[in-house]
Amino acid sequence: MLRLGYIRDWSISAAAMLMLLLVSCAKDIAPPGGPPDTKPPTILATSPVEGDTLIPVDANIRIMFSERIQAKAAAGALFISPPLKAEPRVKVKGAMLIIDPAINFEPDKTYVVTIGASLTDQVGNRMTSSTAFAFSTGRQIDSATVKGIVYNQFRPEPNFRVFAYEMKPWLYDSLFAIVPDYITETGKDGHFEFKYMRPGEYLVLGVEDKDRDNKINGESERVALPNSTAFAKKITEPATDYSLYVSKYDSLNFTFANCHGIAGAVTMEFSGGKLDAATINPDSIRISPRNGEIFAPKTAVVFDQQSDKLYFWSDRLLPDSSFYIRVSGLHSIEGRHLDGDTAACDVRLREVDAEKPTVVSRSPAADRFLILPSETLSVVYSEPIAIQTGAAKIVVDSTLSIGVRAVAGLGTEYSFIPDDSLPANRRLKFVMQNRMVTDLYGNSPADSLFQFDFTVTSPDSLGLLTGTIESTDTVTYLLQGLYKKMKYRFSYSGTEHYRWQLYPDSYTLYAFADQNHNRRWDLGTLAPLSFAERGWIVADTIKIRARFEREGFDLNLK
């Protein structure tokens, strides 16, 4: 960053101004027929200069950029920490940004001016990362820093605002009403850094901040949560990278939204989160007809693709009848509970069900055709069904088929067990005669056949990944094949040696500390505030070759 000399009235000298304007104008003028301007804007000079002390409390701030900038984008990307008591007046003159505080700065205080990565020049080029500089109205400048990265699942999240709140006894109760002490934005790589902070403990959150009010609105804005509070350390001390994880769901309130049904089946819809399937129990659902006996449904299930909906079935749910339904003990996968711990509704059922059952998902999934010798074929339906003997088979070739036996599993999932071993490294076809598949009311799927191709790998075609895991938690490891789409999941506790047999491919490796042992990565909740479980990603892909062992791939997750 170019440093301008100290000038008492905070105006840039005519010569310096002319030079910077000439540089700026030269960058804005593209030769006729030349390539479009794709250079990101950068800061050339600031006044006050970074690191200046004893700045007058009535000073203006001027920032010179390498390109002519958009006024609207500049106002939205400007953050001054600690927050000013009134909105400053912001003007843009070509490549110059002029900030005139409406109220004087406070004496003996460090101020940090941050230009977020969302700032754009006149042709729409963004800055590559946020940039900050500091000055002080006193004799010293705060020098602590906090840095990290915002992840959306396991991918860096660019252009996300990051708020830092100094830890106070009343912070959690006031989180939605106060403006953060420091604000910055993530760059294209998802990284963020706060500089010139007061040393101490901070709650650091990533916030989508759609309305640009520098506050949290959890009803409509995504929030990225940390796995612990952050400690701002002086620049001379080793810095710790803090990871923030974007929570899957926006709303703060987990509530019952709607209830409807047909004869034999009822659907309850929820908002503000996705249902935790582990809390679904038919015995926690009480159905009361008019002047009748209270009973529970036979089956209750939540499907992965529509997990904000609870489905349940009973032959006592008669058509053209009204029922009072009460469900207790449900909560979302983030741990949010219903108000009063119950959901209740009155519902009148329509005519007899004429809706045809459909396939919700299958294993192997539609994006891959390979399965391991230890895997089982399975299909999840949209409702409980009956499968007749001989409905399914595995076709090896035109002369050979292998029968399979359908076994009902959790919810409406059905596994298919072959009557004989399946040949390896051959294209096989799973075939289901849908006329032999019916729901509780005799409806069959619309298509006469359900089929898909797959191949069983042979043990000789696999490779090995071995090494040592060091961790203080129970850690779940997820491997995703980039090309063959094979997926693996392993869990280890503490420090031990591992040996993973994998299909040849290039893999990405993710991991998370399963601290509550529910085999799921919990991203935390905002209200009440709970921290996310720690997560890791191996930056480089892991290449596995057939019949080869990749040794010494050690994982230190502490």
Strand content: 35-45%
In the CATH hierarchy, the third-tier topology of the largest domain is known as Immunoglobulin-like
Largest sheet descriptor = 8 strands, mixed
Strand order in the sheet with the most strands: 25-27-31-30-29-32-34-26
CATH architecture heading of the largest domain: Sandwich
On the 0 to 100 scale, the average pLDDT is 85
Uncertain residue segments: 1-30
Structural classification:
mainly beta
The number of E-state strands comes to: 43
Terminal CA distance: 37 Å
| Number of individual domains | 4
Q: Sum up the overall morphology in one term.
A: globular
CATH class of the largest domain: Mainly Beta
List the helices and strands and how they pair.
Layout: E1 2-3, H1 14-28, E2 43-47, E3 61-65, H2 71-76, E4 78-81, E5 89-93, E6 96-100, E7 110-115, E8 131-136, E9 144-152, E10 155-156, E11 161-166, H3 171-174, E12 182-185, E13 191-197, E14 200-207, E15 223-226, E16 230-234, E17 241-246, E18 255-262, E19 265-271, E20 285-289, E21 299-301, E22 309-313, E23 322-328, E24 342-348, E25 359-363, E26 370-371, E27 377-381, E28 385-387, E29 392-397, E30 400-408, E31 413-418, E32 427-433, E33 437-439, E34 449-456, E35 463-471, E36 474-481, E37 487-493, E38 496-502, E39 505-513, E40 535-537, E41 542-544, E42 549-550, E43 555-557
Parallel strand pairs: 1-2, 9-17, 26-34, 35-42, 35-43
Antiparallel strand pairs: 2-3, 3-6, 4-7, 5-6, 7-8, 9-10, 9-13, 9-16, 11-12, 11-14, 14-15, 14-16, 15-17, 18-19, 19-22, 20-23, 21-22, 23-24, 25-27, 27-31, 28-33, 29-30, 29-32, 30-31, 32-34, 35-38, 36-37, 36-39, 39-40, 39-41
